[in-house]
Amino acid sequence: MEIKKIACIGAGYVGGPTMSVIAQKNPHIQVTVVDLNESRIEAWNSSDLEELPVYEPGLDAVVAEARGRNLFFTTEVEKAIEEADMVFISVNTPTKTYGKGKGQAADLKFIELCARQIADVATSSKIIVEKSTIPVRTAATIKSILDHTGKGVQFHVLSNPEFLAEGTAIPDLQNPDRILIGGEDEAAIQSLKSIYEAWVPSERIISTNLWSSELSKLVANAFLAQRVSSINSISELCEVTGANVDEVAHAIGQDTRIGSKFLKASVGFGGSCFQKDLLNLVYIARSYNLIEVANYWEQVILINDHQKTRFAEKIIRSMYNTVNGKKIAFLGWAFKKNTNDTRESAAIYVADHLLDEQANIAVYDPKVQENQIFKDLDYLASRSSEENRSLLKVVNYSYEAAKDAHGLAILTEWDEFKDLDWKRIKDSMKKPAFVFDGRKLLDRRKLEGLGFVYYAIGE
Ligand code: NAD
Ligand code: UGA
Is the minimum distance from the CB of 163 to ligand 2 under 6 angstroms? Predict the structure, then answer.
């Protein structure tokens, strides 16, 4: 089947960048990205490329090239579905916050709504592509809904999980390690494959059965998160033994069987997916009564929680066991550099812990807006939103955050923090001037030379 028109439901961190690159590389295919969220679509259509709803280096250039040519963003969901030969489902699949599986299972209500809407609208055969990360065997649910509620047209369901990481989404999409396609129908698989073959060498396009593809996505994230928790657990051991976690990571990473990536100790992993997908994997294992398997993967999350708590407690202990009324500067709020995404960011949990101790926090992040920071804190419901606003301030410059602060914590590894005038910062802070480096971004010798009391994870 030749694909002339694609619709993608969900214009978020995955749908937007992924479809932009597909459109850029396939100028002959019309790609329409739809979303219920009007302001999001408006932002995707903004003539000022700084206003795009997702910040990703290089995304603006891709959008500028394809938008209006063969890439469109609209809220007209039904029209886009009806016209499309292939429909990607790229909606959110958050952890359930209610009912059975609350706090663990993936909430599939948005996926089901998409399937029902496609079935309701479609008057011609379509290939349905799961782009969202979903529990293994979800394709069976989608297929069942399509077949039972559709208008008798044919649907083929494929799994095509996305492996991009935020902050590097464009290079990840333009030069992927692999593209994974799971499915049963060879012709449908081939149709999807041909879209990627416009720029991805065919040996990097893997096809498997549906369930292997769905499960591989959860497992890939679980393995990546496990590496971060593994090195973070060792960071604590380094701190009590005099070993240095960067040196240990380097030494073990030289073994090609281990490899050097994803061994950077930190204040803890964040992001919308690692924890969500691990919880989901644990839930699936438990639901099949695989208790040991579930407990094994759950430990990756417990170490991550421990790492965030440990960092906050280190700050309190170092500052003479009280942070009440003391100003602490936070450099960074996003869950990693080069993104404006704050979902599950370690900064939120470290701040919450310190606010419980009545600290005053001043946050600066180059890409995160003030309203997002308060939204993140209010969501935890640890205290009233008035109290969050009185204890925490969001400022526009690192120097403003640091002025008169007793301590400064680095929560996100933004490059610009490395190049700050650290002498100026030291001079403007209360003494002793504490720096807590949750990203191992700065040079200990330089900082100590300037007179800071410097703590970094894993040293
Ligand atoms: P997101 O929340 O940024 O975007 C999802 C969008 O879908 C929202 O804008 C929402 O309004 C829209 N939506 C929901 N239901 C809809 C409906 N019925 N009709 C139209 N629009 C609807 O989420 P995201 O970060 O893009 O993630 C999407 C999926 O991709 C998730 O399953 C996630 O696990 C997976 N994933 C995410 C990443 C990442 O880096 N964020 C990477 C790989 C995979
Ligand atoms: C991750 C995966 O890397 C992607 O392949 C996957 O597609 C995506 O999840 C998803 O499914 O959403 P992402 O969460 O965007 O991507 O970013 P990562 O680079 O994986 O970082 C996740 C967290 O781990 C960040 O908080 C980061 O700071 C932390 N991290 C990462 C470390 O602390 N140390 C490391 O060595 C690597």
Answer: yes
